[in-house]
Design a protein that fits this description.
Blueprint: H1 10-19, E1 46-50, H2 51-57, H3 62-65, E2 72-74, E3 84-86, E4 94-98, E5 101-102, E6 124-128, E7 143-148, E8 158-169, E9 174-185, E10 188-199, E11 202-207, H4 211-215, E12 222-225, E13 230-243, E14 246-260, E15 268-285, E16 291-300, E17 304-309, H5 311-318, E18 321-324, E19 330-334
Parallel strand pairs: 4-7
Antiparallel strand pairs: 1-6, 2-3, 4-5, 6-7, 8-9, 9-10, 10-13, 11-12, 13-14, 14-15, 15-16, 15-17, 16-19, 17-18
Length: 345
């Protein structure tokens, strides 16, 4: 008996393999999201700094803390005074808020006045640019810088916890310390914080003034920026009571600083501010008038004393002393589940 060898063409082998059952592989669903316009940080309407990111950016003033953010610069009148500049606009065109309410200070009226706020006490910073800033008022055409702290605890606190930090170094030999302590039993919450900062004249390479100014008879200092030293001290105490449908709390803070103006030799600025605040929130109320969520903030700044002097005698003769007093208490309330502009979610 004769057997002929079986020969399969490559095409037949491919068809046979294709017809054989294969093991199905089930893949997890993948969601791909793309932005056709690209990632443009300068066009972003808002920036948020908090946590470790805020801690790494912290400096002695609010302007220097935000100086590296897209579209943000600082006025920088020395280590003691620096206010944010957003997209080239500053002064009254930039609103500085504390927990959604105006900071009520004189820094927008005079560039050498510091914002009475130490960034070390801030938990969160929001920078709003573009048309969205107009929600905070018609003068906020440049943008808004909104700072948040927990001096009135808006959430229950269990137990005792705190934090502290020490800093030393830099071109101005900064020595700073800060600490905060929070305690609560679920219903009552207490907040305490304190901070202190001292800095010397800024060390620089060469002369502080140009050769043209020195030839005109103003030699200036060498290897240091004269009259750029100063100090800042502050502290706060606050508390709140929490229940199932909201909370209510009060706080008091004190800010005290003395620093020099690098633009004018011998000129010193003394600043003291006393700040009182009340905050409350009601939510999930039933009855004839249902309330999903309502918030109320009341801030009062009785006095902020800014004194600009050049020696004890020139103070009275030149009339450089001025006192800034805030307008009546500022209040803001919201309800119906919609948060007020500038308030955290």
């Amino acid at each position: 008996m004769l057997y002929s060898p079986l020969r399969l063409s490559p095409l037949a082998v491919a068809l046979w393999l294709a017809a054989s059952p294969s093991q199905a592989v089930e893949l997890e669903p993948q969601v791909i999201t793309a932005n056709p316009l690209g990632n443009r940080q300068l066009a972003a309407p808002s920036t948020v700094l908090e946590g470790d990111n805020l801690l790494q950016q912290q400096h002695g003033s609010l302007g220097e803390t935000l100086n590296k953010q897209p579209g943000v610069a600082s006025t920088w009148f020395g280590p003691g005074a620096s206010r944010p500049v957003i997209r080239g606009l500053d002064g009254d065109r930039i609103r500085i808020l504390r927990n959604g309410v105006g900071a009520l200070d004189a820094s927008s009226l005079s560039y050498d006045h510091a914002v009475p706020l130490d960034p070390v006490t801030v938990d969160r910073v929001e920078i709003v640019r573009g048309p969205a800033a107009l929600l905070y008022g018609g003068n906020a055409i440049g943008g808004v810088v909104n700072t948040f702290d927990n001096r009135i605890p808006d959430a229950p606190i269990e137990g005792i916890h705190g934090a502290g930090e020490l800093r030393y170094g830099g071109a101005d030999t900064t020595r700073s310390s800060a600490g905060k302590l929070e305690a609560g039993n679920g219903a009552f919450a207490l907040h305490l914080d304190a901070n202190s900062r001292q800095f010397n004249d800024l060390r620089i390479p060469g002369y502080a003034r140009s050769s043209k100014v020195r030839d005109a008879g103003e030699p200036g200092s060498k290897h240091r920026l004269e009259n750029s030293d100063g100090r800042q001290d502050g502290g706060a105490v606050g508390g709140a009571y929490h229940w199932d449908h909201g909370y209510a709390g009060l706080s008091y803070s004190r800010y005290d600083s003395n620093y020099g103006s690098v633009a004018e030799s011998g000129v010193r600025l003394d600043m003291q501010q006393d700040h009182y605040a009340f905050a409350s929130e009601l939510r999930d109320l039933d009855g004839p008038f249902e309330l999903r969520q309502g918030r109320c903030w009341l801030y009062r700044l009785p006095t902020q004393r800014d004194r600009r002097r050049r020696g004890a005698h020139h103070l009275q003769e030149q009339g450089l002393r001025s006192t800034y007093r805030s307008p009546p208490p500022t209040a803001r309330a919201g309800g119906g589940g919609d948060r007020c502009p500038g308030q955290p979610q």
